[in-house]
Amino acid sequence: xxxxxxxxxxxxxxxxxxxxxxxxxxxxxxxxxGIDALDLFLSQSFNLLIIDVMMPGLNGMQLCKHIREKAxxxxxxxxxxxxxxxxxxxxxxxxxxxxxxxxxxxKEFLARVAALLRRQSGADVxxxxxLHFEDLVLDTYSKEVSRGGKPIELSAxxxxxxxxxxxxxxxxxxxxxxxxxxxxxxxETGTNVIDVYINFLRKKIEKDFERKLxxxxxxxxxxxx
Length: 225
Prior knowledge:
By secondary structure, this protein is an alpha/beta fold. The protein contains 8 helices and 11 strands. It is 41% helix and 21% strand.
């Protein structure tokens, strides 16, 4: 059974999310403040963490940063009432893999959870567990990435994006396609979240390398070539 941790200081919301997840056969542990959440999340193994931004002790952004500093690659879904693009970017930069703005429908919440867990789990045996493009290597079993033999640390969402590109080399991927495949949601034309993640990924796989791999087609999308 997959195990999910929830850090949410509103008891009604925490219980609602817990009940919805347990009805879908997930094991769920909840905690109501950032300090206790950090202790719990570092002491046990989880398949997914759900973190509210506004919490006592440590807020969600701080908690997320602490988790990533410990090199934990567990997927993180951030929950918040703060819905501006800058707020979303701040959450992503803190290490979150997805961002859901309150109020939200439980159906969308469960879809986001399932998408993160599905992407994190894994490997597609039919296509092999190692993907290669030029000097870039992605291992879907170990979740390791390297370029020119140099290890590259990616967040769960960055890994998903890179895998998507490497399974579709030399193919132009629209933002709509990326949103559906990597987030399992419809693309919102007013958001730049996908562009932000692409920039995160570019910085990691292209830093210190002369040859650039991910290219932008203005108003069309992105291509790995």
